[in-house]
Task: inverse folding
């Protein structure tokens, strides 16, 4: 797994790529939580993610929960269809805010 | 002819089991030193083997102490030496009865349960499940029980000895009017460190023997004839485990006494 | 179409003592599909499963799973391989001293250094998958048969295994519960891209879930193929199994009579 | 049964066990392995029969120390007894160490009979005046011998 945090004017984007499995999700969790501590909305770019296992999803869930409790927006950007299926089996696709493009996330932020 | 044959086969089977039991000890000794180290399972087993046996140990300790007080008082009174009552009770409890009675109580209360638990885990595929999860069943299931046995039995033996000494005190001093000073000081003067140490060594060995035999009996149920009998088989191996470990305690008590 | 194989079984012979249980089995199990191994009682299904799980060492032959030959693998290799597989046992094999949740977390706690929160969330995700979320804190003794199987399934998939074995998913369950379990198995294959091996003797679910079927009989492989191929087969043993006709035994009247009346041994000895 | 309770009860059990052990080791076994404040004296006896390490050393019927070890000296064929005498107890150079018995079948102990010299024994020194254990047979034979004489 590779990760890169990009600071945009109003929010942060965490760009992920590669496989996210048991070995990587502790890093992912730490990245998400430390970024949210800054008090800025977070968008996770998942376009380049080839595989995410349930520990990775668990980290996303925890991030979402943390963001929600501090009233921050937390979105997932361009999820691939296999990942979507994993989310669907646990109905998490209805919980997370999923975005096709960065602009749609910005629109939500401006509301 | 049939009798000889069955005698021979049961002899072979028991030899095989003895071998397996000692092999298990070696495997566990090897597994214990390997990481990961988990403390909580051991605490849990000390809770089960040790803490939960405390009540039984206290009651039987007091009773044995009172019986000893009564018997020694009657005998010593005839020779006019009731002032050595304290040392008589203390020495017999510390050197013999404490370790042996405690070990037998642990066999009955915890040993049988350990054996049945492992036996049930084996026949209900829980041991297989552990193996399939890449968790070593020797280390995960047996090692904590063995360690807890080695830790708990000596501690229980100490508790037993102390309450037995006071059981004897109650009968001798409170009921029969032996002077408190001669009971306690006589005991303190007569007992030396090597008496306490002998009891401690015995209880360590008993603790290991009892848990090892009970674990091995239950854990290896599938390798014996009882393995195919399901719940009934578990009851057979549990009975076996109790009988064998009790005999092992008594016999090794004699051996240790003879060697040390 | 070349299919990748997940499990390759070659010339597998398994004996218990002098009894030969499996006789020269050759079987390929394709990746990412549901394969069902079926057969009557005593056909050697569970022995085959135990061999694949590495619980029973075969007398000869090879079992290559995801590239590891588990018959010759070192204990360390076997250990590593087993972290990629999940097994749901027939009776659940849940640890009775732990709650459902603790049972499911056990592999994670033993093999990973994940954060406590992550472990909790993963546990609930898996429990939710098998519709057991409300029962996380129950003890195994408080579960019904169907719940036990679902909890066992959740424990089997907690590490996101590539390979899932399911022993008798519908045994002892009512038709509705077992249908739900079948759907769950299909869902798992689709969403998590698992290779699933189901061992069963029950016909109901087989054709619903199977991509491939292997039929065992008397220690040998009778037939392996797609459900269509199995249906089309005219092998009497396959037809018998599918139509549930009892095995035909040719009865010699005289001999049978002698057997029943106990004269058999006497006449044999002559 | 939750985790904290199990740990708590196990902890209590271990504490009770260790306390019991300490009671046995320190009080009952007479602290024979814990050095008490005091000093060492030795004494030679022709016979210490029945005396054991840990036995009491008495002065005027009061416990003033313990026997720490008993060894055999092959050259003089005597027993060398090491005594641990409590601090503050003064033993004169000509004091007598005598082995005595409590009751008929009671324990053997060492009785210190004070002497008249002013010089005192200090750590590591020897009591020269000793009286060995008197066995019952010796007593009886001496009694017979006396009546005859």
Result:
């Amino acid at each position: 797994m590779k990760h890169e945090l990009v600071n945009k004017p109003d929010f942060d984007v965490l760009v992920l790529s590669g496989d996210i499995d048991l070995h990587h999700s502790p890093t992912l969790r730490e990245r998400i939580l430390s970024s949210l501590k800054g008090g800025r909305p977070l968008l996770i770019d998942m376009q380049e993610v080839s595989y995410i296992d349930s520990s990775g999803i668990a980290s996303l869930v925890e991030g979402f929960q943390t963001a929600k409790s501090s009233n921050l927006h937390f979105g997932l950007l361009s999820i691939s269809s296999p990942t979507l299926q994993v989310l669907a089996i646990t109905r998490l696709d209805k919980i997370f805010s999923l975005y096709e493009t960065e602009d749609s996330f910005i629109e939500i932020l401006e509301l | 002819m049939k009798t000889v044959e069955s005698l021979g086969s049961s002899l072979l089977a028991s030899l095989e089991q003895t071998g397996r039991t000692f092999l298990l000890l070696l495997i566990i000794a090897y597994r214990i030193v390997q990481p990961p180290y988990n403390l909580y399972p051991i605490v849990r087993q000390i809770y089960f083997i040790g803490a939960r046996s405390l009540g039984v140990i206290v009651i039987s300790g007091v009773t044995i102490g009172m019986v000893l007080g009564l018997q020694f008082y009657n005998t010593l009174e005839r020779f006019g030496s009731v002032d050595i009552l304290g040392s008589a009770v203390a020495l017999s409890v510390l050197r013999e009865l404490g370790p042996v009675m405690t070990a037998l109580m642990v066999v009955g209360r915890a040993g049988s349960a350990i054996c049945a638990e492992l036996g049930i885990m084996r026949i209900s595929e829980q041991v297989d499940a552990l193996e399939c999860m890449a968790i070593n069943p020797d280390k995960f299931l047996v090692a904590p029980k063995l360690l807890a046995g080695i830790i708990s039995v000596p501690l229980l033996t100490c508790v037993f000895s102390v309450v037995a000494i006071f059981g004897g005190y109650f009968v001798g001093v409170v009921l029969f009017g032996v002077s408190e000073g001669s009971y306690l000081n006589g005991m303190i003067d007569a007992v030396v460190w090597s008496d306490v140490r002998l009891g401690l060594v015995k209880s360590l060995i008993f603790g290991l023997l009892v848990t090892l035999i009970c674990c091995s009996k239950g854990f290896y149920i599938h390798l014996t004839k009882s393995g195919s009998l399901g719940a009934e088989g578990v009851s057979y191996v549990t009975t076996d485990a109790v009988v064998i470990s009790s005999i092992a305690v008594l016999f090794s008590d004699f051996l240790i006494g003879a060697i040390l | 179409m070349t299919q990748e194989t997940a499990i390759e079984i070659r010339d597998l012979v398994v004996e218990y003592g002098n009894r030969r249980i499996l006789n020269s089995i050759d079987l390929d199990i394709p990746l990412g599909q549901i394969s069902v191994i079926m057969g009557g009682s005593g056909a050697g299904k569970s022995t085959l499963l135990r061999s694949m799980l590495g619980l029973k060492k075969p007398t000869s032959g090879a079992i290559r799973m995801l590239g590891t030959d588990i018959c010759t693998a070192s204990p360390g290799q076997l250990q590593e391989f087993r972290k990629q597989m999940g097994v749901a046992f027939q009776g659940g094999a849940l640890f009775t001293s732990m709650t459902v949740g603790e049972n499911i977390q056990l592999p994670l706690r033993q093999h990973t250094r994940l954060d406590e929160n992550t472990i909790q969330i993963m546990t609930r995700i898996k429990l939710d998958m098998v519709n057991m979320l409300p029962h996380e804190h129950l003890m195994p003794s408080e579960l019904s048969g169907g719940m036990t199987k679902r909890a066992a399934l959740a424990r089997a998939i907690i590490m996101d295994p590539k390979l899932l074995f399911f022993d008798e998913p519908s045994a002892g369950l009512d038709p509705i519960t077992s249908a739900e379990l079948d759907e769950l198995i299909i869902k798992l294959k689709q969403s998590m891209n698992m290779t699933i091996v189901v061992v069963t003797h029950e016909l109901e679910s087989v054709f619903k879930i199977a991509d491939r079927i292997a039929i065992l009989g008397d220690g040998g492989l009778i037939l392996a193929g797609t459900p269509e191929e199995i249906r089309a087969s005219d092998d009497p043993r396959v037809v018998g199994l599918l139509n549930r006709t009892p095995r035909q035994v040719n009865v010699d009247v005289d001999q049978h009579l002698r057997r029943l009346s106990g004269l058999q041994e006497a006449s044999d000895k002559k | 049964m939750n985790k904290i309770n199990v740990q708590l009860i196990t902890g209590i059990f271990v504490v009770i066990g260790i306390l019991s052990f300490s009671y046995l080791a320190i009080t009952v076994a007479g602290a024979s392995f814990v050095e008490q404040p005091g000093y060492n004296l030795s004494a030679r006896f022709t016979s210490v029969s029945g005396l054991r390490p840990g036995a009491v050393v008495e002065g005027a019927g009061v416990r003033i120390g313990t026997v720490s070890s008993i060894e055999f000296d092959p050259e003089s064929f005597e027993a060398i007894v090491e005594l641990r005498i409590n601090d503050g107890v003064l033993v004169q150079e000509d004091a007598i160490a005598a082995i005595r018995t409590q009751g008929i079948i009671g324990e053997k102990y060492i009785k210190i009979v004070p002497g008249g010299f002013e010089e005192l024994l200090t750590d590591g020194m020897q009591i020269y005046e000793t009286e060995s254990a008197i066995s019952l047979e010796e007593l009886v034979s001496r009694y017979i011998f006396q009546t005859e004489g």
Notes: The domain at 5-94+161-178+188-269 of chain C is CATH 3.40.50.300 (Rossmann fold).
